[in-house]
Amino acid sequence: MRSADWAQDGGRRAEMHVGSRVDERAVAIVGGGPTGLMLAGELALAGIDVEIVERRTNQEVEGTRARGLHSRTIEVLDQRGIADRFVSEGQPLQIQSFAGVRLDLSDFPTRRNYGLALMQNRFERILANWVEELGVPVAREREVTGYAEDDGGVVLELSDGRPLRAAFVVGCDGGRSQIRKSAGIGFPGWEPSVSSLIAEVEMSEEPAWGMRHDENGTQALGPLEDGKGVGLVVTERYAGQTSRPTLDDVRRAVTAVWGTDFGLRSAAWISRFTDATRQAASYRRGRVLLAGDAAHVHYPVGGQGLNLGVQDAVNLGWKLAQVVDGTSPESLLDTYHSERHPVAARVLQNTMAQTTLARSDARIDALRGLMADLLGLDEPRKRFAGMIAGLDIHYDLGEGHPLVGRRMPDLDLATAGGATSVFALLHRARPVLLNFGTPGRFDLVPRTDRVRLVDAEYSGRWELPVLGEVTAPPAVLIRPDGHVAWVGSGSGSGSGSTDDPGLTQALATWCGSPTLR
């Protein structure tokens, strides 16, 4: 159903809703953190009428939260032409690690062969500015207090008394997601085994800087960026703490580890988190979808949570836009779950493994030592670094060329219009059919308004992280999220010509049927 068609139908339905005015959107996003903001930007690029509902008064994030971006996240920002906004305010570093072992990406075949040290509050502020430029409205200081769904859409009752109706609602509202609960989506997983305090404090004595492991887990003290305080993470002796943490809790935990509280006198911020590990049973139920922490929670080891959520948004955004716009059937949304659920499941597994290795006794110390030896070897280092950085993600799109289902490398291209790059072609979040063969052999009518056709030349090596060098294809169909949907074989019926059945099927699956809209 197109946006205009839905709005007309939604208006009639809205009049039936308690007889009062109901604001209407094609998509409502509940939660304006990194995932919600990225999703809003993706939808706005496609011209979709979207609104964010956010409980905070502004974009400031309390405390330190996430501290950096991994390589693939920087790449997806590059695909929208905004990566340099973040890189200019962060510090490129080799931040990837597994169980405390640093994993170097500097020899990976990507322009962004590093991580970026950047606090979440700065990341959100930059992303919010981009979303504002795209004209997305944000309803701040609002919470969802009521929820009703029917075949035509979802009505959210907001805390200001305003009903908001949308054809689709996306819950980006965190691990305790009200949208997930209201939609009745299960959240199975594992109960916590450790509980940690994270805080920004002041101490009258200089503490013992650094990180250590004990029988409870990881303990760390470090100076804050502004040099005016101390950031700490302390694993408590008992899991399952549910009360709001206090300064006395922090004092006791610090003293239990270091034998002193270093004159701890005040705290700007204190929070408690556990290694509870859960994943939504389904990322979609009817007209409700989940992304980010609303779909998966885990211990924050490795700094993967924010990155996972942003990449959820990039996978979902263009699919939801095509369904709302009427170019693709609703079944396209099912691929969001089938592609992203396995990615998060693997993150959950690696964070549970790392949480175990963060503890310390003779047996775990021995295992950690063996892991450090293993990761010192080139092949394991590349495999684990690619996993943590998100560069090895492979969606199961069927058999064929090794590129199918994987990220498209950001090649430098020569075109009739001048020099460009693959990621530059993706700035508008549209599919791209990239032809390296004879110019003019493709005819995309009637999809010329949906798929960008580019004749190009590239003379370098084709190389993927972890996989290594691959055979150069004569043509590729690239989805808006930067993953390859189809590769021409270069001979016979699969040559990449207009009548290639593989291309025809890929275009129908990922770019919509010519008969729709």
Describe this structure in words.
This protein is α+β, with helices and mostly antiparallel strands and 517 residues long. It is built from 13 helices and 29 strands. The strands form seven sheets. Strands 1, 2, 8, 9, 10, 11, 19 and 20 form an eight-stranded mixed β-sheet that branches. A hairpin with a 5-residue loop joins β28 (475-478) and β29 (484-487). It starts with a helix and ends in a 6-residue tail after the last helix.
Question: What order do the helices and strands come in, and which of them pair?
Answer:
Blueprint: H1 3-16, E1 23-30, H2 34-45, E2 50-54, E3 68-69, H3 71-79, H4 83-87, E4 91-93, E5 97-98, E6 101-102, E7 115-117, H5 120-133, E8 138-140, E9 144-150, E10 153-158, E11 163-171, H6 178-182, E12 189-190, E13 195-203, E14 210-213, E15 218-223, E16 230-235, H7 247-258, E17 264-274, E18 277-279, E19 284-285, E20 288-290, E21 296-297, H8 305-325, H9 334-357, H10 362-375, H11 378-389, E22 412-415, E23 418-421, H12 422-425, E24 432-435, E25 452-457, E26 463-464, E27 468-469, E28 475-478, E29 484-487, H13 501-511
Parallel strand pairs: 1-2, 1-11, 2-8, 11-20, 24-25
Antiparallel strand pairs: 3-7, 4-7, 5-6, 9-10, 10-11, 12-18, 13-16, 13-17, 14-15, 15-16, 18-21, 19-20, 22-23, 22-25, 24-28, 26-27, 28-29
Helix pairs in contact: 2-5, 2-8, 8-9
